[in-house]
Design brief:
By secondary structure, the protein is α/β, with parallel strands linked by helices. It has helices at about 45-55, 55-60, 75-85, 105-110, 120-130, 150-160, 175-180, 185-195, 205-215, 220-230, 245-250; strands at about 10, 15-20, 40, 65, 95-100, 135-140, 165-170, 200-205, 235. Strand 6 (about 135-140), helix 6 and strand 7 form a beta-alpha-beta unit. Helix 3 runs parallel beside helix 5 (about 120-130). A seven-stranded parallel beta sheet has the order 1-4-5-6-7-8-9. The radius of gyration is 18 Å and the shape is globular. The two termini are about 15 Å apart.
Length: about 250
């Protein structure tokens, strides 16, 4: 963070964990490691909290932990989250990453499948507004087979019915799986319209969005104009699988 002149960062754990099936010869190293299921893992928040709390006070002040380990289809989810917020008052500074539609991860997740406008998440969004916490939401804008904003209505419903909740849209609905299979030329207009219509929407850009901004290595300058029009509503993020090199950021 110091080398890259980053003053503050959001930190969070992965909200799901991979099951090691008895049929697997060794433990999977990642959620896509094999075809066994993943399940919601509430201990991820405790692991993040312990690591942050173990840091010196000046380092803690630069990190903003988000709470993510809850079942996004459980109507009790908001209640569980509020208990943790009260257990560590003024510690958690956001909710997420809330993973809804997410490529093969959606299919691997056990039981009911999540979506951005699920009734359980509506209660979570209302709780976030009550505590003034932003929500980092991952919801794919489409599927691998549809080169159009297939799931836009789910996101729009979440935004429009929760105007007091700030949403950070992860990767603007893109993933590496999507950008490898479809062009997503519709995305610029979709994002521009959403930013214009919803003051509570922010974009968390990542490496997958670069594939859309720079198709075939050529910069689409419309995106630069959009970022310049909304400079306070774009930010950069990465999983630990990415590399925040100085040259890449410049």
């Amino acid at each position: 963070m110091d080398k890259l002149n980053i003053d503050h960062a959001y930190v969070m754990g992965l909200p799901v964990i991979k099951k090691w099936d008895a049929s697997a010869p060794k433990a999977p190293r990642f959620v896509y490691g094999d075809d066994s299921s993943v399940y919601y893992y509430s201990h991820t928040d405790e692991l993040v909290a312990r690591d942050v709390e173990a840091l010196p006070a000046e380092s803690q002040a630069r990190l903003h932990p988000f709470l993510s380990g809850f079942n996004t289809t459980d109507l009790n989810a908001a209640e569980h989250i509020e208990k943790e917020l009260k257990y560590r008052p003024n510690f958690w500074q956001g909710i997420g990453e809330v993973i809804t539609r997410h490529d093969h991860l959606t299919a691997l997740t056990a039981d009911e499948k999540p979506r951005a406008n699920h009734p359980a998440l509506q209660k979570v969004y209302q709780l976030a507004a009550q505590y003034d916490l932003p929500v980092l939401l991952h919801t794919n804008i489409t599927s691998q087979r549809e080169d159009n904003p297939l799931y836009l209505e789910e996101l729009e419903q979440a935004l429009s019915t929760n105007p007091d909740t700030r949403f950070l849209w992860a990767h603007a609905g893109t993933t590496s799986t999507l950008t490898r299979t479809i062009k997503m030329k519709f995305l610029y207009e979709t994002v521009a319209d959403l930013l214009s219509e919803h003051d509570n929407l922010y974009i968390l850009a990542s490496w997958t969005l670069i594939d859309v901004i720079m198709p075939d290595g050529q910069l689409d300058r419309r995106w630069i104009s959009l970022i310049e029009a909304y400079p306070e509503r774009f930010m950069v993020g990465s999983d630990i699988v990415g590399h925040l090199g100085i040259n890449k950021l410049h």
